[in-house]
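Can anyone check this?
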Amino acid sequence: MGKHDNPLHISVFPPHSAAQGAYLEFSFLLNASLDIFELRTGDRNRVDQDLGMLQAVDERLSIWGWQTGTGTKFAVIVDMWGKQGRPSTGLGIKGDDVKPVFKALQTAYIRLLQNPFYTPDDHTPMAAVNSRGSAGEITSKKFIAEVKRIGDNWKPGLEKD
């Protein structure tokens, strides 16, 4: 999410990627987490970018947050049932399990910003209204592929390259 709380990119992974309406459902959940981002980042003494678990939606879904120094927000919705869509026997997820995902996402975003043809100001709500931007969402195929790779390879507690 951009520093103006606009969605920059949303990816949905199995088992939810095949579900009808999943993109809209997760968009609502991410939008609902913005207030919690604001509360957590209001602490001026906070040094870490990791905001931890923002919200437990239910016994299955939880939202985790990370904010860069420039105000760009990353949120990951974790399904405790995993990619198979059935309850796991694990004890849950810890903040350290999610940090590798956020670091990988931030690295992918930094690489996107290094692209001379990508202009972050074209991805703001005002740019979209003035028809300068592309509705605010990131359309870089390389960035989208990297996010997909991160999501496909991540398992709680394991960092895969």
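Reply from J.R.: I decoded it. The mean pLDDT is 80.
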